[in-house]
Amino acid sequence: MKIDNFFAELKRRNVYKVAVAYAVVAWLLIQVATQVFPIFEIPNWAGRLVVLLLILGFPVALIFSWAFEITPEGIKLESEIEPSKSIKRGTGRKIVAMTIALAVVAAGLFVYQLVRSKATVTPRQHASAARTEAAPGPQRSIAVLPFVNMSADKNDEYLSDGMTEELLNVLTKVKSLHVPGRSSSFAFKGRIDEDIFRNVGEQLHVNAVLEGSVRKAGDKLRITAQLINVNDGFHLWSETYDRDMKDILAVQSDVARRVVEALQVQLGVEEARALTKKPTENPEAHRLYLLGRYHFAKFTRAGWDNAIHYYEQALQVDPTFALAYCGLADTYGWAGGQTLPGREAWAKEMEFAQKALALDPNLAEAHLAMGTALFSVLDPRGSLKELDHAVELNPNLALAYDQYGWTFAEMGRHDESIAAEKKALELDPLNSLFNTDLAFFFYWARRYDDAIAQVRKTLELDPNTGLAHHCLGWCMVLKGNLNGAKTEFQKAAALDDLPWYKADLGYAYGASGDRAKAEQVLRDLDDLAKKQYVSPALHASVYLGLGEKAKALDWIEKAYEDRDPMLWWTTDQLYDSIRNEPRFQAVIQKVNALKEGAKR
Asked: What CA–CA distance (Å, rounded) separates 327 from 366?
């Protein structure tokens, strides 16, 4: 057959028309599948299967058009039909009419998608608004529930908790995605409610939940992850990974990427890079870091000691591991004034924050660590600058807003500290520490009724929060209810052995006239100081309760030498009775000089 005759035959047999019609129908089917499949929770692989079948069907349709003809009597081979009886021409007109009709439908669908896409994308282009308004759209919010430890060794729980934290940290870097913070997620740890997903959705204001499990056997890992719609419990995506321990970072990156794809979140260049960026290339360093985070989160003396040990080991394996330096800075920051003198702890906190920042200037956690370290050494203005950098890099970093609250409070800017803490709670609503901090900020603003209402809300979330009972007790002191204060201080001391809570009781005993019990607390603090660090400010508070101002001032001067945390709160109501004493004013002047020196 000559080539010209071949092309003419293709035209006569409607092969061209079938090709065009098939392309239009295929495109329309793909668009319909894209819109309909998510509604019925049909998994992504089904959509890919539709596309594959349509591609494979294209040559089949062309071959069918060439070899067969549809007649009133049914489908027949082209070779069996006499040319005079062929109805190819009429069939061709029908194909053209059908193609035009389908093309109109396809064009309408395309316009609809284009308009909807613009409506979805535009709000996310306003980055500054996204920082202050937490208004996630459909399937743009997700809670990461604690992964379950399925290993035979229960000591491997640090791996499942670590997987949860790492996924949280990565997903919070997606600015258009609302991800409640760690404490809110871990509030559901161990819960097996029948309607757990609906409860999570209602309490954390999300419409999707990521859950999973980790099983370790030797160096082998099995990690399962599944993304679930909270409204109906249907799976949006699920996967099982059988990998070696050294592959855990790759699994975390893949899970985060697949979640973002399933939620149909469009990523910017930096966000896409953040999903694949590994904090370290060394699996052993990463394992030790996860152990450090696990022990730090216990918020106990032993937990902090263990955290420091594991962070230091991680840095021996990988000296360039910036997040491990952040972990050390955080731990020393919390230990200051509790297990170490502030002067010693703040120096180490600053050292490690500087190292983290030098290693990775684009790490939000490093700027947060530096902001906290500057706050500790009485440089609130420098702290605010670093916190600004942190939230610019990651607007969803809840701890940064909590630290804003403390820094503003140190500066006496109480309205701003309250507003910042409320923002932290938007990002991590079930965080008992943030809820307690907000109560403290109301307290320092001398809004005692607001502070009491807030701290009672905290205790509804977690009645075993010693810090919340401590805060409530001081609110009652200022409201003149010393018996109620003693009850709250006793609850705090029963929940945690921190020396601060013993001193609270000593103050309350002294202020209510029970000198014998107050003096016993002083002896207990002296005995404890022989075994561990005890802040000089604690003796000062008991003596203030007893009304012995001179002895209180002796201990306050010692607290200044230690750079005790009390220096942040020289405006605290506890010191009202000695505020105009020359010795206290001298301490205030030294503190102000430190702040001025930092500003220069």
From this structure: 10
Distance between CA atoms of 388 and 462, rounded to whole angstroms?
A: 31
pTM for this predicted structure:
0.72
Q: Which residue carries 């409607």 as its tokens?
A: 14
Residue 426 has pLDDT above 80, yes or no: yes
User: What single-letter DSSP state applies at residue 153?
Assistant: S
- What span, in angstroms and rounded, lies between the C-alpha atoms of 422 and 398? 10
pLDDT given for residue 69 in this prediction: 63
Q: Within 13 Å, how many C-alpha atoms sit on residue 453's CB side? A: 5
Pairing of strands 208-217, 148-149: parallel
Give the pair of three-digit tokens for residue 518.
């107050």
Within a 10 A sphere around the Cβ of 231, how many other Cβ atoms? Answer: 11
Q: From CA 260, how far away is CA 255, in angstroms rounded? A: 9
Residue 46, number of CB atoms within 10 A of its CB: 11
Report phi then psi at 75, rounded to 5.
Answer: -85, 130
Helix or strand run (H / E) with residue 77: strand 74-77
Q: Helices 88-121 and 15-36, interaxial angle, to 10°? A: 30
Cβ atoms of residues 69 and 88 within 8 Å: yes
Torsion angle of C-alpha atoms 426, 429, 433, 435, degrees rounded to 10: 80
User: What are the structure tokens assigned to 313, written together?
Assistant: 């080991």
Strands 68-71 and 74-77: antiparallel
H/E run at residue 433 = helix 432-444
Alpha-helix runs per DSSP H in 68-147: 88-121, 127-132
**pLDDT at residue 266, as a whole number:** 72
Q: What is the pLDDT of residue 600?
A: 45
- Report which residue type is found at 503: A
Give the separation between CA 226 and CA 389, rounded to whole angstroms. 34
Residues forming a β-bridge with 148? 213
CA 317 to each of CA 156, 312, 313, 320, 325: distance values in angstroms, whole numbers, following the listed order:
20, 9, 7, 9, 13
Handedness of CA 470, 472, 477, 483 (dihedral sign): negative
- Percent of the chain surpassing pLDDT 70: 79
The most confident of the ranges 300-304, 434-438, 590-594 is 434-438
Mean residue pLDDT across the chain: 83
H helix or E strand, kind and range, residue 226: strand 220-229
Calculate ∠ Cα 460-419-459, nearest 5°: 10
Distances, alpha carbon 38 to alpha carbons 34, 119, 212, 568, in Å: 7, 19, 21, 53
Report helix, strand or coil for 241.
Answer: strand
DSSP string covering 468-487: HHHHHHHHHHHTT-HHHHHH
Phi-psi region of 480 (alpha: psi -120 to 50; beta: other; left: phi over 0): left
Q: Which pLDDT tens digit goes with each residue over 32-88? A: 666 555 545 455 556 667 777 777 777 776 676 666 666 655 565 666 565 555 555
CA distance 335 to 340: 6
Name the DSSP letter for residue 41.
T
Interatomic CA distance for residues 455 and 449, integer angstroms: 10
